[in-house]
Write a structure and sequence with these properties.
Helix content: under 10%
Number of strands: 33
CATH superfamily: YVTN repeat-like/Quinoprotein amine dehydrogenase
CATH class: Mainly Beta
Distance between the termini: 30 Å
CATH topology: Methylamine Dehydrogenase, Chain H
Length: 405
């Protein structure tokens, strides 16, 4: 079985990664030294990366129907997209490689016609999704995290673990908070940036980085899954190793509205949809919770492992593991289940694309029937991201774009 290794790599690559935002209480910084630092961290002309694949001159430009602007495509983490999915088996279009790279990039995001990712060399890169050529780069401190985007700004945890904001078109740093924020994947919603580090949930002003509130869920957390934000609430899970806790907090004040304890092993972010919080658990159980009270509405066990965040589309929840399952979002009743060995996935109107051990696989959303599969040259390490029929996925070799044959 390859599951333990694949699961570890996917988590390291961004599929169930840290959300962190600790103590942003200083706002923006405009010192001459920091401005010089920002300039030195960017390289708009040279790159140590290399885009290989089809002849770049022969590639048609790619347009993006809808941005994929943060982890799991939004603060609710539904993993659902309106972007055009590929219609058949895939071939490599281009691959972005970095000389001396050891380790895979995190899940990328796509917005404003640009693809953004943070790789294992601690570099934030902006790539042209059509051909993989680099537009700009900036040095950061933490590898393997997914940035967040909103209205022309890319948010990351950067140098010295500080919360930073970059201009999405130029790579120029807009501001840096003057308090360390730790490491991890950020969520932007309603003018705030949210995250969690070691059991402490934080909110910062998205325009300045200034701290808005800080709430401690547990002082012994060892897991730092991404928070979810929906309908004025922040849903956070902290695995303390003994008594993991999931809680709902008021998004404006940080007040704890409810908290539940579970058996150990909360490694995945919640998904919020259909008036419900869907919480996948390491014990192989999917919990459906009332977002107002935290009360359990129903549970579902696929009969094997759960290896990633669930996705949601049109009243159905999709569960990933040794099998791929479709579950009625209101009742928890299983609609279908197929053998899939899927470690992560995304869903559109007609299909689901999953990343397996050495493959990208498409399933019909209504039946689960396999539509096509493509053997990848390298082991997929991130959730797939799509734009106008292209599929972008990270691996130990870098970032690869696939297109329909």
């Amino acid at each position: 079985m390859v599951r333990p290794n694949r699961r570890r790599v996917l988590q390291a690559g961004g599929a169930a990664l840290v959300t962190a935002l600790a103590g942003c209480n200083g706002g923006s910084s405009n010192s001459a030294d920091e401005q010089s630092d920002a300039t030195e961290s960017m390289d708009n002309t040279d790159t140590d990366g290399d885009s290989t694949g089809q002849n770049i001159a022969d590639l048609e430009p790619v347009t993006v129907d809808e941005p994929w602007h943060m982890y799991q495509n939004g603060p609710r983490h539904t993993g659902s997209t309106e972007n055009t999915m590929p219609s058949g088996k895939l071939e490599q279009r281009w691959q972005f490689e970095v000389e001396g790279l050891e380790g895979a990039p995190a899940e990328p995001i796509v917005a404003d016609g640009t693809l953004y990712l943070i790789d294992a060399t601690n570099t934030l890169r902006a790539l042209n999704p059509s051909d993989g050529t680099e537009q700009w780069q900036a040095d950061v401190t933490v590898p393997h995290v997914t940035p967040a985007y909103n209205e022309g700004t890319v948010y990351i945890n950067g140098r010295n673990d500080l919360l930073e904001a970059y201009d999405a078109s130029s790579g120029e740093r807009q501001w840096r908070s003057d308090t360390a924020v730790g490491t991890g994947t950020l969520v932007e919603a309603d003018g705030s940036v949210y995250g969690m580090l070691d059991g402490i949930v934080q909110a910062a002003d998205a325009e300045t980085g200034e701290q808005r509130w800080s709430t401690t869920l547990t002082e012994t957390a060892i897991n730092r899954a991404p928070v979810a934000v929906a309908d004025g609430r922040v849903f956070a899970s902290a695995d303390a190793g003994v008594a993991p806790v999931t809680a709902a907090l008021d998004a404006a004040s940080g007040e704890v509205l409810w908290r539940n304890e579970y058996p150990e092993g909360l490694n995945f972010a919640a998904t919020v949809a259909n008036g419900t919080v869907y919480l996948p658990h390491d014990n192989g159980t999917l919990y459906a919770l009332d977002p107002e009270t935290g009360d359990e509405l129903w549970t579902y066990q696929p009969g094997d492992s759960i290896d990633a965040e669930v996705t949601y589309r049109d009243g159905t929840v999709y569960v990933y593991g040794d099998s791929l399952s479709a579950v009625d979002a209101s009742s928890g009743e299983q609609q279908w289940q197929v053998t899939s060995d899927s470690a992560a996935g995304i869903v559109s109107d007609g299909q689901i694309i999953t990343a397996a051990s050495t493959q990208l696989i498409s399933h019909d959303r209504e039946s689960g029937e396999k539509q096509w599969e493509t053997v990848t040259d390298n082991y997929p390490t991130t959730t797939p991201v799509v734009a106008n029929g292209l599929v972008f996925v990270g691996s130990e070799a870098g970032l690869t774009a696939y297109q329909a044959v």
